Amino acid sequence: MTAGAKSEEGPGGVLGWVENRLHLAPFIGALLHVRIPANAKTFYLGGITLFLFGIQVVTGTLLALYYSPTPEAAYESVLSITSDVQFGWLIRSVHHWAANLMLLFLVLHLLRIFVQAAYKYPREITWIVGGGLLLITIGFGFTGYLLPWDQRAYWATVVGTEIAGDVPVIGSSLLLLLRGGAEVSEATLARFFGIHVLVLPLLLGGLVALHLLFVHQQGLANPSRAEARPGRVTAPQPPDKLKPFFPDYILDEVIAWYAVLAGLVILASLFPAGLEPKADPLVTPEHIKPEWYFLAVYQLLKLVPETVGVVAPVALVMIIVLLPLLDRNEEIRPRRRPIALGLALVLLVAMAVLTYFGGRV
Ligand code: HEM
């Protein structure tokens, strides 16, 4: 075989050996060699969320090697991870901070798409799948919080599951399903552990794959031009300016991941994840504090009747998930969407105020 013939046939060596057997080149080419609008501004937020999920899978697997999901041993196993296992404290703290950052970047990703109206035709299903990802990520936070089995974890779960129990119609069944009995107990810990390490990772992994497949099929949105709808006659437009996804966009994305990783290690080292005294079902602490992303709901419940405090957040989540079906305005320019952006701003300010006052206890 001549050198020229070899280059036409693809790579040699190990890659060539694999390629001759699996013929993956067209598949990888279809995934990577796409072109995206030159003016697409994602701020790498979706990719950073994906990266943080990867960090959670790696650090979570390492933690699971030493963690014991029973009320007798859970607290001691976390203590041992923190003080006996080499770099255990760092892995645990990175897991703690990556969980918080994942939710933060996910919300920023959602806001970017909202402001650019990238949830409108043809990306409605991509957004709805994203809504599912938001719910699963919150579920990770809720179930993971109990695992250290300290006072804070235990009592926040007592309150959190009580709130779930107030959901109209399905509340009492939901409470029983979550707790595995009348109280937060061994059964609750076993359930939360199983959901946290098996059910939610599988769900999130599957939905993320679907989400990325849809993004790949549709291409990224061009924030300065609404997508042409089928059957509509519109004035002819010059073609979009495009740039390569690989390597140009991917390289910037990896640089963003690298910066996030550096920030993560700095945060985990300077502010390691703490641990309160072991859970005691007989001693109610003076102040029960949920994770920061539940503070707004927690504060709202102090101000309004219970049913309103539970129904309002559920309704809000439904509105967010189904937004593309509710918002029928075809306009994508932010200045021409004052109602949608105004309502979102009011909501963000209200949530920030509630979170602030909820966190002051
Ligand atoms: C685990 C959570 C999520 C991951 C890993 C993820 C990942 C991504 C990635 C990598 C992209 C490509 C563009 C970018 O990097 O920004 C993207 C696009 C998109 N995502 Fe997500 N996403 C998540 C959650 C969400 C949520 C919560 C929503 C909305 C409710 C959403 C809606 C969308 C839409 C509509 C696009 C297309 C945007 C465009 O074409 O400009 N995603 N996502």
What does this structure look like?
This protein is an all-alpha fold and 361 residues long. It has one domain: Cytochrome Bc1 Complex, Chain C, CATH 1.20.810.10. The chain is built from 15 helices and 2 strands. It has a two-stranded antiparallel sheet with strand order 1-2. Helix 6 packs antiparallel against helix 7, helix 7 runs antiparallel to helix 10 and helix 8 packs antiparallel against helix 9. The longest helix has 33 residues. Protoporphyrin IX containing FE binds next to helix 4, helix 6, helix 7 and helix 10.
What brief labels describe this structure?
binds protoporphyrin IX containing FE, 66% helix, 361 residues, mainly alpha, 2% strand, single chain, two-stranded antiparallel ribbon, 15 helices, Cytochrome Bc1 Complex, Chain C
Secondary-structure map:
Elements: H1 3-9, H2 13-22, H3 25-32, E1 35-37, H4 45-64, H5 74-83, H6 88-115, H7 124-146, H8 151-165, H9 171-179, H10 186-218, E2 242-244, H11 245-270, H12 295-303, H13 306-321, H14 323-326, H15 338-358
Helix pairs in contact: 4-6, 5-6, 6-7, 6-11, 7-10, 8-9, 12-13, 12-15
This protein binds protoporphyrin IX containing FE.
